[in-house]
């Protein structure tokens, strides 16, 4: 009895995360199929929902939180996020600017 | 690892050492995942830069099939939660339940890889291989790298199932399964980026 209680408690975050992920996946696919919003708005909604879904996965599947996760792991993740922002943001900035100057 | 454990005389000391070793391994693996995330981030940046360069060839609109992408997404998402159930079973020392969930995860992951191989083969047959345009080179590099990771994950699941079967749920085996779980959930996170950046904007 006690073991099933424990299993249920451990299972709960996975189910919460799964339901949230289903919703966060369903909305962007539905938007694209239905084509209700203008192109740019749809892209913005897709981007926001993707970021939210990444956070949901980190929280409920990888069990990341600010209390129980070792501090070094959170720091490594934060560092990776900074690096990714610099590299993606920088690459896109340079390349799109170059594109604009060369093509127009 | 074993030599360090053996030199610690008392059982309690050995145990504490082992826990330390597993925590260090988990941290090292976490660092690997972060560097892998940076590789994928750069492949995403490359794709976004290359995506408009069709070179007069086929575009995402004609190549991508949204229902196939949705099926792939669902397979991967379901495999994430079944791996979660395997982890729960492992922590409750229910080996048979864990092996069953691992088998389900393997089947879902194999379904994903099969769909992706079918997609790639179909594109190749239509003359839309990686050599056709900058867009397709970047597409195959990004999505192919992710697919390769999933394939490696499948091999790892197979190996860990055999280890759990032969060795039982010993401390080293559970520690490896824990890291495999991190890897598997991480791949699902990368896939969120792929359908949000490659497929959905591609068919818009």
What would your notes on this structure say?
The complex is a heterodimer of chains A (104) and B (204). By secondary structure, chain A is mainly alpha-helical. Chain A folds into two domains: 1-64; 67-104. Chain A contains three helices and no strands. The longest helix of chain A is centred in the first third of the chain and has 33 residues, at 2-34. Chain A is flat and about 70 Å long. Chain A starts with a helix and ends with a helix. The mean pLDDT of chain A is 92. Helices cover 85% and strands 0% of the residues of chain B. Chain B has one domain: Four Helix Bundle (Hemerythrin (Met), subunit A) (Up-down Bundle). Chain B has helices at 2-7, 11-50, 60-63, 66-91, 95-125, 134-167, 171-203. With 204 residues, chain B is mostly helical. The N and C termini of chain B lie far apart (53 Å). The chains are: A mainly alpha (104), B mainly alpha (204). Chain A binds chain B through residues 3, 6-7, 10-11, 14-15, 17-18, 21-22, 25, 28-29, 32-33, 39, 42-43, 46-47, 49-50, 53-54, 57-58, 61-62, 70, 72-73, 76-77, 79-80, 83-84, 87-88, 91-92, 95-96, and chain B through 23, 27, 30-31, 34-35, 37-38, 41-42, 44-46, 48-49, 66, 70, 73-74, 77, 80-81, 84-85, 87-89, 91-92, 182, 185-186, 188-189, 192-193, 195-197, 200-201, 203-204.
């Amino acid at each position: 009895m006690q073991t099933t209680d424990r299993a249920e408690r451990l299972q709960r975050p996975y189910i919460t995360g799964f339901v949230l992920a289903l919703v966060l996946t369903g909305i962007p696919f539905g938007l694209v199929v239905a084509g209700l919003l203008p192109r740019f708005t749809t892209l913005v909604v897709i981007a926001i929902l993707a970021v939210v879904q990444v956070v949901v996965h980190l929280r409920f599947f990888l069990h990341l939180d600010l209390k129980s996760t070792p501090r070094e792991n959170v720091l490594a993740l934060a560092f990776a996020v900074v690096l990714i922002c610099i590299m993606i943001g920088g690459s896109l900035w340079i390349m799109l600017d170059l594109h604009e100057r060369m093509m127009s | 690892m074993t030599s360090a454990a053996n030199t610690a005389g008392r059982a309690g000391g050995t145990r504490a050492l082992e826990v330390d070793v597993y925590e260090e391994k988990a941290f090292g693996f976490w660092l690997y995942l972060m560097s892998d995330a940076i590789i994928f981030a750069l492949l995403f940046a490359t794709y976004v830069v290359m995506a408009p360069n069709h070179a007069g060839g086929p575009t995402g609109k004609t190549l991508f099939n949204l229902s196939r992408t949705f099926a792939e997404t669902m397979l991967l998402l379901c495999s994430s939660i079944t791996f979660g159930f395997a982890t729960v079973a492992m922590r409750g020392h229910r080996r048979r339940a864990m092996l069953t969930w691992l088998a389900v995860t393997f089947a879902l992951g194999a379904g994903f890889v099969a769909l992706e191989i079918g997609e790639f083969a179909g594109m190749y047959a239509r003359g839309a291989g990686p050599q056709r345009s900058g867009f397709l080179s970047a597409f195959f590099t990004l999505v192919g790298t992710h697919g390769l990771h999933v394939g490696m994950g499948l091999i790892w699941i197979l190996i860990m199932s055999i280890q759990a079967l032969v060795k039982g749920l010993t401390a080293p085996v559970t520690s490896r399964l824990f890291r495999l779980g991190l890897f598997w959930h991480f791949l699902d996170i990368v896939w969120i980026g792929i359908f949000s950046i490659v497929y959905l904007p591609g068919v818009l």
